[in-house]
Amino acid sequence: MEMTDMKPEEMSHPPMDQLIGMEYCIDSNPSWGGAIVLGFQHFILCLGTAVMIPTMLVPLMGGNAHDKAIVVQTVLLVTGINTMLQTLFGTRLPTIIGGSYAFVIPVISVISDPSLMRIADDHTRFKMTMRAIQGALIISSCIQIILGYSQLWGVCSRFFSPLGMVPVIALGGFGLFERGFPVIGKCVEIGLPMLVLFVALSQYLKHVQVRHFPILERFSVLISIALVWVYAHILTVSGAYKHSSPLTQVNCRTDRANLITTAPWISIPYPLQWGAPTFSADHSFGMMSAVLVSLIESTGAFMAAARLASATPPPPFVLSRGIGWQGIGLLFDGLFGTVSGSTVSVENVGLLGSTRIGSRRVIQISAGFMIFVSILGAVGLSFMQFTNMNSMRNLFIIGISLFLGISIPEYFFRFTISAQHSPAHTRAGWFNDLINTIFSSPPTVGFIISVVLDNTLEVRNRAKDRGMPWWARFRTFRGDSRNEEFYNLPFNLNRFFPPS
Questions:
Q1: Which DSSP category does 488 fall into?
Q2: How far is CA 254 from CA 59, 187, 258, in A?
Q3: DSSP secondary-structure letter at 343?
């Protein structure tokens, strides 16, 4: 058949509410055995962030390996608590609430406070710095709690269209690229085999089955990590890095983390374990900027998780409820002392798509256990099917949002590396943290640009082009019959918290 003879509907794929090929959706579950192994795989994946952030920040605070081990334990405990609360009472989407890199800039600002830097004893400085960070997190958590439980964020979400969400969700995935190959490059002989093995197992060998079970596709991350760790350990014990630089040994050897050897045998993290938090307006204002970034990143991640879990887009009421519980999670971060705030784990959202398992139960199991893969960028771009991509207006908004969403944070990063300070470098520390944190986040920059342009540029008679007719039925909780199935609270709690 000639191309010119084809009907329009035969030349393109129609928009679809749900992705094709997902094995289990939000409220369907694999067997208990499979769910437990899949949950452990999610746990292993979020373990990367749980270790990397304390490894980066604790030494700057004056902490030693023992302090770092306790902080990692604390992060895992609070991640499990926050994830369980979010999946039970928040959005109820299969999302893990873990550590966020958005908080690194304001935390380093607290660490660099002259009053703390003057403390001579390292352990004392670590505890005093941790208490200052805790105070800032506790105060700043009020933003998400108020925005969530007052339904203000739900009201704001009415200005979000499918077009406006494309850069936010896509840049959430694209933002991981800077932590992709640069991290692999720190130890190429281990990182590159991991990458190749994961792609081979999850894509080329995904149809290999054991007793009709696609074991390589479902557990590709877990199998890859296990095999590569054994390979790395063989290199370590054989002396391959004996004469390497200290940096190479830290990145490549399997015996340099010191987490197991320095962790106490029995230790249960508890609130205020570092002492009473201290409060500073300067520190709190800086931390609030990271909370706003976390709010935007989580909104995009919730939308992506809903799509990967074959659920309807979360209605404004559900989105606000989830943000409110995330604020409670930030409060727990501050009370327990996790050294940074939390957000929806983009890596684990990506794993939903890799395994094709969007089950809520799997994530809840992983919360009981408590960096690699991310296909979130493709999920964000899939929202374009609901918009008119023949519209020059839409093409401009998506193009400029993606361009500036990537290039502005890259400018901030390169400026900081070359000048040894961020572009915003005034005497007002809280203002510096606000500007530098917001404009270092690709999803946040993309969100600001896309939402402003989408709601101001040729708005009249553009509702259909923006994808609003498709989006409209998900605006209210009872607008689509599936909403109640996906987002109703357990234990009949909707009687006390009716959807508004």
A1: P
A2: 19, 12, 9
A3: E
What are the phi and psi torsion angles at 271 (to 5°)? -60, 145
- The one-character DSSP state at 429 is H
Nearest to 384 by CA among 402, 369, 368: 402
CA within 13 Å, CB half, 311: 29
Pick from 48, 56, 68: which is nearest to 258 by CA?
A: 68
CB 134 within 8 A of CB 274: yes
Q: What separation in angstroms does the CA of 312 have from each of 145, 315, 391?
A: 24, 8, 26
Q: Identify the H or E element spanning 342.
A: strand 342-344
From residue 87, how far is each of 8, 40, 253, 301 by CA, in Å? 42, 17, 36, 14
Q: pTM score, two decimals?
A: 0.76
Residue that the structure tokens 């292993």 belong to: 44
Q: What ranges do the domains of the chain cover?
A: 32-375, 383-495
CB 451, CB 164: distance < 8 Å: yes
**Rounded Cα gap, residues 54 and 58, in angstroms:** 5
Q: What is the pLDDT confidence band of residue 58, given thresholds at 50, 70 and 90? A: very high
What pLDDT does residue 322 have?
Answer: 93
Highest-confidence range of 161-175, 199-213, 483-497, by mean pLDDT? 199-213
Burial label for 185, CB within 10 Å (0-12, 13-18, 19+), is exposed
Give me the helices (H) in 360-493, please.
360-369, 376-382, 392-419, 429-438, 442-456, 463-466, 468-472, 481-487
Please, are residues 105 and 290 in contact by the beta-carbon 8 Å criterion? yes
Q: Report CA-CA distances (Å) from 114 to 111, 130, 189.
A: 8, 15, 41
* Amino acid sitting at position 161: S
User: Tokens representing 209?
Assistant: 């089955």
Q: Which helix (H) or strand (E) holds 344?
A: strand 342-344
The closest alpha carbon to 250, from 187, 167, 333, 202, belongs to 187
Q: Which residue has the higher pLDDT, 150 or 409?
A: 150
Look up residue 14 and give its DSSP letter.
P
Q: Is 240's pLDDT higher than 90?
A: no
Distance CA(189)–CA(251), nearest Å, equals 11
Report the C-alpha gap between 196 and 234 in whole angstroms. 19
Helices (H), 337-391: 346-355, 360-369, 376-382
| Contacts for 402-407: CB closer than 8 Å, 24+ residues apart | 402/167, 402/170, 402/171, 402/174, 402/446, 404/445, 404/446, 404/449, 405/167, 405/171, 405/174, 405/442, 405/443, 405/445, 405/446, 405/449, 406/171, 406/174, 406/442
